[in-house]
């Protein structure tokens, strides 16, 4: 009996040490990806109560998880390395991100901030002149206020400026056919922000359409390439005749951007539908991630989308999921 207790103690001591090492690795290397090796110990265990969510191939998993989580559903989830926030630079107030930076630091996470460069008054004229106005310095105060606040983050910030620029739908004023204007504005922002706070990483983040190469600002201005991947079954059935798997969506976008030879982050990942469909789709997505060597991070968009974005005939998709799918086997 005493011998069995010693064995059990040694098993749990080993697991504890491996968990500690894994967490230490995560905190030091959020860009290059981490291997949650301790999960293979848990998932191979004979103790059934330890084997939660072992339908995910934790043994071979080498990506970080991130989340956009405005409602705090993932606050207690221990596998989240990056937490995401969106800000509109024309509405930003000094110190607005301080509480968020403190929150992510307390969770041993790194912050990712998407900066949406909307025009001042959102008029048609200011939308058309956005890139010229950026170049002339009209948005310098907004840039300086935001980037000065980035200095308050204890960890480096992943900065994603002007996302989905090649998806010209009228939703974003920076998403236009003016590729040279976009590139000049992106570079202007990065140069300004680097002068203020040099510790951060910059994400150039298209959707991943085939026309994206004309918007690339150059390797010196990009630390990571971001992509967006959403599975909206009703929309896909109407447009493609069927739902699409993660591989069917992501593999095409991966091929478009892998030539830039930058680490890739799925900055926005979402799936809607019933809970069983969401879970099955996500598990397949996570297990498929190891097929893409440049993919380092997957950040889930856990929120309801903006009304009307997918068209008037579609309901507003709700991407929120049960966060337990991202819970480690512990």
From TrEMBL:
GO MF terms, alphabetically ordered: mannan endo-1,4-beta-mannosidase activity
Residues the record marks as active site: 164 (proton donor), 268 (nucleophile)
The keyword Hydrolase is assigned to this record: yes
Domain GH26 residue range list: 25-330
Record-level GO BP terms: substituted mannan metabolic process
InterPro entries according to UniProt: GH, GH26_dom, Glyco_hydro_26
Pfam families, per database record: Glyco_hydro_26 (PF02156)
Keyword tags: Glycosidase, Hydrolase
Domain of life, per lineage: Bacteria
PANTHER family, sorted: GH26 DOMAIN-CONTAINING PROTEIN-RELATED (PTHR40079:SF4), MANNAN ENDO-1,4-BETA-MANNOSIDASE E-RELATED (PTHR40079)
Family the UniProt entry places it in: Belongs to the glycosyl hydrolase 26 family.
Name of the protein described by the UniProt record: GH26 domain-containing protein
Species for this entry: Candidatus Woesebacteria bacterium RIFCSPHIGHO2_01_FULL_39_28
């Amino acid at each position: 009996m005493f011998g069995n207790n010693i064995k059990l103690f040694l098993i749990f001591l080993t697991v504890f040490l491996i968990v500690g090492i894994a967490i230490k690795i995560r905190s030091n290397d959020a860009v290059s990806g981490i291997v949650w090796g301790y999960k293979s110990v848990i998932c191979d265990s004979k103790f059934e109560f330890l084997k939660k969510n072992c339908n995910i191939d934790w043994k071979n998993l080498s990506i970080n998880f991130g989340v956009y989580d405005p409602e705090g559903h993932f606050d207690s989830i221990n596998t989240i390395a990056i937490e995401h926030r969106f800000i509109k630079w024309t509405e930003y107030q000094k110190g607005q991100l301080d509480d968020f930076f403190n929150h992510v630091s307390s969770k041993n996470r790194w912050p990712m901030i998407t900066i949406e460069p909307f025009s001042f008054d959102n008029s048609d004229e200011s939308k058309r002149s956005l890139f010229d106005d950026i170049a002339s310095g009209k948005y310098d105060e907004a840039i300086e206020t935001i980037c000065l606040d980035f200095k308050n983050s204890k960890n480096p910030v992943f900065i994603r400026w002007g996302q989905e620029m090649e998806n010209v739908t009228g939703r974003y004023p920076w998403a236009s056919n003016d590729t040279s204007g976009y590139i000049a504005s992106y570079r202007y922002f990065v140069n300004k922000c680097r002068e203020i706070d040099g510790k951060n990483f910059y994400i150039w983040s298209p959707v991943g359409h085939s026309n994206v190469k004309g918007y690339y600002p150059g390797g010196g201005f990009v630390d990571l390439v971001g992509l967006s991947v959403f599975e909206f079954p009703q929309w896909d059935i109407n447009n493609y005749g069927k739902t699409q798997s993660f591989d069917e969506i992501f593999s095409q976008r991966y091929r478009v951007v892998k030539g830039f030879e930058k680490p890739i982050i799925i900055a926005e990942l979402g799936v809607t539908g019933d809970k069983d469909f969401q879970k099955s789709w996500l598990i397949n997505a996570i297990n498929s991630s190891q097929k893409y060597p440049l993919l380092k991070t997957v950040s889930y968009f856990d929120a309801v989308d903006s009304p009307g974005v997918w068209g008037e005939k579609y309901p507003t998709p709700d991407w929120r999921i049960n966060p337990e799918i991202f819970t480690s086997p512990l």
